[in-house]
Amino acid sequence: xxxxxxxxxxxxxxxxxxxxxxxxxxxxxxxxxxxxxxxxxxxxxxxxxxxxxxxxxxxxxxxxxxxxxxxxxxxxxxxxxxxxxxxxxxxxxxxxxxxxxxxxxxxxxxxxxxxxxxxxxxxxxxxxxxxxxxxxxxxxxxxxxxxxxxxxxxxxxxxxxxxxxxxxxxxxxxxxxxxxxxxxxxxxxxxxxxxxxxxxxxxxxxxxxxxxxxxxxxxxxxxxxxxxxxxxxxxxxxxxxxxxxxxxxxxxxxxxxxxxxxxxxxxxxxxxxxxxxxxxxxxxxxxxxxxxxxxxxxxxxxxxxxxxxxxxxxxxxxxxxxxxxxxxxxxxxxxxxxxxxxxxxxxxxxxxxxxxxxxxxxxxxxxxxxxxxxxxxxxxxxxxxxxxxxxxxxxx
Length: 396
Known about the structure:
Residues 219-357 form the GGDEF domain. InterPro entries: DGC-Regulatory_Protein (IPR052163), GAF (IPR003018), GAF-like_dom_sf (IPR029016), GGDEF_dom (IPR000160), Nucleotide_cyclase (IPR029787), Rev_trsase/Diguanyl_cyclase (IPR043128). By secondary structure, the protein is an alpha+beta fold. It contains 11 helices and 12 strands. Strand 7 and strand 8 form a beta hairpin. It starts with a helix and ends in a 40-residue tail after the last strand.
């Protein structure tokens, strides 16, 4: 950079214009820092540029981001490894670090960093902290191959470039935080707060999409309504905290037993709904076999007792299965699965019943597969090791 104020101002204007374009293009903080290194390398009278970021997530350590030209990455990465060097001092003390001659031991105190820089042919360096909103965001390192005094005017322009960059970093960080907040809000609005599973809103969206795809392929989707038996007895006997533990454990175990394309949702309370798409169904027998496999995985997932409240609670479930027909809506499918589940409860022991959704059906769906049985006695065991106690009894 020339010491003349006119040429320096023009170089700064060009550099700021490029950074502004990057900032307006919704760049991330790291992308802005990479842009800073490239812009400074093109428009300032320097031979090398490096940028570091103060990574607060990493315990406040300096992290290398970018170098221009690439050879400068060597000493910059060394600063990251050693956590020492001009950029580290600039960030730690929030001051400019100016070294006119790296071969002068009076001006340097970085035993490993200095030889690495000299080996690349650089003789002087300036490190400027990027400070905004009361915090340090990173540092800008500028290298020259010739030793000599860095003039006040050029340092002033460079300082302004660092300040503008820090302001853009604040904007980018705020934008990223807003995006994260939006994603979290969207996730929370579509997922159950306790189990993290999709909630009713997301379930109905996926039901609608699945039914539309099934109609195009002239196939069926399966909806399984899973209701934990006598769950109220768990809350009454062991407390709601234990009940929450059971719900979370059951949700995680069921989720782990399913295929990636299946959707498990918590509808309300102790009710879960499983949406199964892309089941093999070249014949009714093949579809029945596929559903048997799903039920078997659910049974295995629930087989192990849940340890909580100083005891082991053995969970059972009644399951109703509904298969979509030609004109089935999400409400139809869920209502049919719900009805099949209550039929399973009424028939005594815990089991599984199936039905084909007949609402607005325009073609014969073929025979309904025979129901597979899911019999898991619900009997909390006492903490004294006296064996299981039936504290629930049969019923809905």
